[in-house]
Amino acid sequence: MPDTPDDALRLSGASNFRDLAASPGTVGHGGRPLRRGQVFRSDHLAGLTEADRAAIAALGLGRALDFRGVAERAAAAYDLPGVTQHALSIEPTVVQHMQALVASGQALTVPTVTGLMHDLYRGLVNDQSHRFAELFAHLLDEADTRPLVFHCTAGKDRTGLAAALILLALGVPRDAVLHDYLLTNERYSFMPGEHPEIPRDALMVLWRVQQGFLDEALLAIDRDHGGLDRYLPQRLGLTPAALQALAARYLAEG
Asked: Which sign, positive or negative, has the C-alpha torsion 120, 87, 41, 225?
């Protein structure tokens, strides 16, 4: 794949699609940059135009790792020729909790929704580590070295944490990891008319990302698991040998 600016990858039907190596500062162990054109992150791929599909075909993607829940996948299914789909289901919870609060007559304030998002990120770290372990197993699969994309619905929370874990495992500094995470606020286009029962200021918390969300996940890793150096091998299966293999595959030669 040519070394082109990230803007060259912009798709009409997946606003948050991007090369994980394209964010500034994505330099890993030993000052080695990430290889371009190997790992992509995205929102869901059910709304792609024909031009989008042609652009993805040109990238040579062979695998799509889908973090969406069962109903989400059924409601927005897609098919890309030559791309093998793998379901790594993490069921959504925040919208359902918000709707339950509305139904019970409780007001949805910005602090309330922010708290739900913090709960989500702690839950992703503590309860969904098996899905992220599956992600790394795909990244390290020696039988299939084709470029891949991982995604959820908006490509911001489940996908955002997955991207952060990949970058951290490759030795990318936390400020660069945060930069990649926050790019969602510049890229993702959501429909403002969705969920009219939820106040707009609360929806803006839901449909955007904040540093505090990622900080909550990293705090959970430190507090509940003894830090990243323990979380990676104990919960994600990333032994020292696996980390070396990950770096060899996804970092350019120094």
From this structure: positive
List the one residue out of 209, 229, 227, 208 whose CA is nearest residue 219: 227
d(CA 34, CA 113): 35
- Can you give the pTM of this predicted structure? 0.94
Contact 87, 64 (CB under 8 A): no
Q: What pLDDT, in 10s, does the model give residues 142-183?
A: 999 999 999 999 999 999 999 999 999 999 999 999 999 999
Cβ-based neighbours of 162, under 8 Å, separated by 6 or more: 41, 67, 132, 135, 150
Contacts of 161 (CB under 8 A, 6+ apart): 121, 124, 125, 132, 214, 217
Give the CATH class of 6-250: alpha beta
Whole-angstrom Cα distance, residue 36 to residue 212? 29
